[in-house]
Amino acid sequence: MKIGVVGLPNVGKSTLFNAITEAGAESANYPFCTIEPNVGVVDVPDQRLKILGEMYKTQKITPASIEFVDIAGLVAGASHGEGLGNKFLSHIREVDAIVHVVRCFKNEKIIHVNGSVSPLRDIEIINLELELADLEQLTKKLEKDEKLVKTGDKSLIASVDLMKRIKTALENNLPARSVQVDSEEEPILKSLQLLTAKPVIYVANFGEDDLGKEDNELVKEVKEFAIKDNAKCISLCAKIEEELASLPKDERELYKQELGITTSGLEKLVVASYDLLGLMSYLTAGEKEVRAWTIKKGTKAPQAAGKIHSDFEKGFIKAEVVSYQDLIDAGSFLKAKEKGKVRIEGKDYVVCDGDVILFRFNV
After folding, report:
1. How far apart are CA 70 and CA 3, in angstroms?
2. Can you give the pLDDT at residue 74?
3. Residue range 289-303: mean pLDDT, rounded
């Protein structure tokens, strides 16, 4: 899973990236500090792995991971190549979802590219540029495909119909994701690779002075907009998150307690990202390794097995499944089996979050 971190210059985008990835992306008080995207792979926090590791006395623990990409700051006119627009648009096409960082703090020492702090205006600038880029791309494709339909190519009728509906939405300043699609149209929408079809998490970045009262008026504006935009929204202070990330791990919890923070920005972001993309984790456990595997909600057992290796899916026979909590309560896999908590599931079993699974296969 790859998530692009975007926002106007100097809104705290690279500061947040530094915090969540501990990758040390350059962050400075001038526009276009980020030109080429920085990439950081982040472990998904999951306390279940540590507990299973202790139970199995495992040699290795491998958490699930998310790849975050810090993409160059955007300005008005990017859809026509202004600033670093062309680079921004090409990089954002490659991600699965967008984390849109919005400045919700006032600080005269930190330059704002538009001269003042206005979250809704900032959101509108980026969203408009993405909509204009999609509109240009869609218009060109629609002109070409409509001509092919007239020649008798009926295979494009559904595609053309969907593109017309999306084009109408874009012309009314609405993103492609606002258009309702059925199961047959979903593959068509995906093939179009539209920027505004990507799911979005708005990150309302408040200032250090607002810690404890982070629902300030600027943050509220972003949260209200996210609801209308059918998007997720979380609030955090990127600067504090960066300070936390700079500390040794054993000191972070103490600092969080001092600040009154119960959940880190990374944890908030991971939960929101998983929820946004409809993801979850199942687990495998043994003496050699305890590991979390990321899958889509609704995934059946053979396809879940295929995440480990394609041979597991091709030769799937059955899955021995126990829920994480039942396994912990029993104290071992063998005891869980004796208590009847381990189930034998077949090809139609839909995997649940926290299932601990042993796959049986034949190749």
Report:
1. 9
2. 57
3. 96
C-alpha span between 203 and 181 (Å, rounded):
27
pTM of the model: 0.82
Task: For residue 101, give Cα distances in angstroms to 82, 230, 268, 289.
Answer: 20, 16, 14, 36
Token pair listed for 161? 């119909």
Mention every residue, 6+ apart, whose C-beta is less than 8 A from residue 111: 10, 29, 30, 31
DSSP 3-state assignment of 137? helix
Q: Which amino acid is at 128?
A: L
Q: Which residues of 137-165 are buried (b: 16+ CB within 10 A; e: fewer)?
A: bbeeebeebeeeeeeeeeebeebbebbee
SS3 of residue 229 by DSSP? coil
Contact yes or no for 4/297 (Cβ under 8 A)? no
Give the whole-angstrom CA distance, residue 311 versus residue 305. 9
Of residues 303, 309, 340, 305, the one with CA closest to residue 322: 340
Q: Using alpha carbons only, what angle is made at residue 209 by residues 206 and 215, rounded to the nearest 5 degrees? A: 45
Q: How far apart are the first and last CA of the chain?
A: 29
User: Poorest-confidence range of 35-44, 156-165, 182-191?
Assistant: 35-44
Identify whether the C-beta of residue 196 lies closer than 8 Å to the C-beta of residue 134: yes
- At 72, the pLDDT band (50, 70, 90 cuts) reads low
